[in-house]
Amino acid sequence: MWYVLTTLTQAISPARFPAPNEVWDSLRQVTLAGYADARLHMHVLHSVKLVLLGFFAAAAVGVPLGLAMGWSRSVEAFFNPAFLLIRPIPPLAWIPLAIVWLGLDDGAKVLVIWFAAFVPCVINSYSGVRTIEPHLLEAARTLGVPRWMFIREVLVPGAAPMIFTGLRLSLQACWTTLVAGELIGAVAGLGHVLYQGSLDIYPAMILVGMIAVALTGAAMTAMLASIETRVMPWRRPG
């Protein structure tokens, strides 16, 4: 249908949406010769690096904080007011402040990605603790389970399904925010390809960039799902 509408009948103007052969030519160009100062694999690797840095930093801070807030009323009372103020702020609203703090380098983009991924990690880890069956907690208290054993054997496994839900949401937020962040002041990355394509009025290259974002994000989501299956084999279907 894409070929029919854009090439055979030209019902859709090539200026509005590129034909399949135009997209293929653009893919060959960015893969072999390069576009926006780099070839496709370099753009992909640069974007993946930024996503992973922001994602792991957010998970390292957000998951423990969410677990602590869910388990301890005092920790929740201390952090929740500040978290409730930060939570409604869109991640993209942090871009100007991140640029003021860190300039136009990759550090500003990682900071914005961190903010995007941080909130889902905290919320879902917190919810995961609150969904643990009360009788499991009471049994652990009755048996006098040591604190670290309780965290390792009861708290984290019980909250794990919600933790991974938060990680999936965080990963999606990372990609959404990355593309927006790379539209400004980037020298490489898939967002930079999209931005340069818009400046050049190059719809085919824009579509190539969008497809690359979709495929790379889907591949990383599949890898996270594989890790989830290994960590929680009891949730494996069948």
Notes on the protein architecture:
The protein is mainly alpha-helical. It has a single domain, classed as MetI-like fold. It has helices spanning 2-8, 20-33, 40-71, 73-86, 95-102, 106-130, 134-142, 147-182, 190-199, 203-231. The longest helix is centred in the last third of the chain and has 36 residues, at 147-182. The two termini are 38 Å apart. The model has no long low-confidence stretch (mean pLDDT 88).
List the helices and strands and how they pair.
Blueprint: H1 2-8, H2 20-33, H3 40-71, H4 73-86, H5 95-102, H6 106-130, H7 134-142, H8 147-182, H9 190-199, H10 203-231
Helix pairs in contact: 2-10, 3-4, 3-6, 3-8, 3-9, 5-6, 6-8, 8-9, 8-10, 9-10
What's the SSE pattern?
Answer: HHHHHHHHHH
CATH topology: MetI-like fold
The total strand number stands at 0
Strand content range: under 5%
> What integer is the average pLDDT?
88
Q: Identify the overall geometry.
A: elongated
Largest sheet features: none
Number of domains: 1
Q: What is the CA-CA span between the terminal residues?
A: 38 Å
Which architecture would the CATH scheme give at its second level?
Orthogonal Bundle
Structural class: mainly alpha
The name of the CATH superfamily reads MetI-like
Summed up:
The chain is mostly helical and 238 residues long. The protein is built from ten helices and no strands. The longest helix has 36 residues, at 147-182.
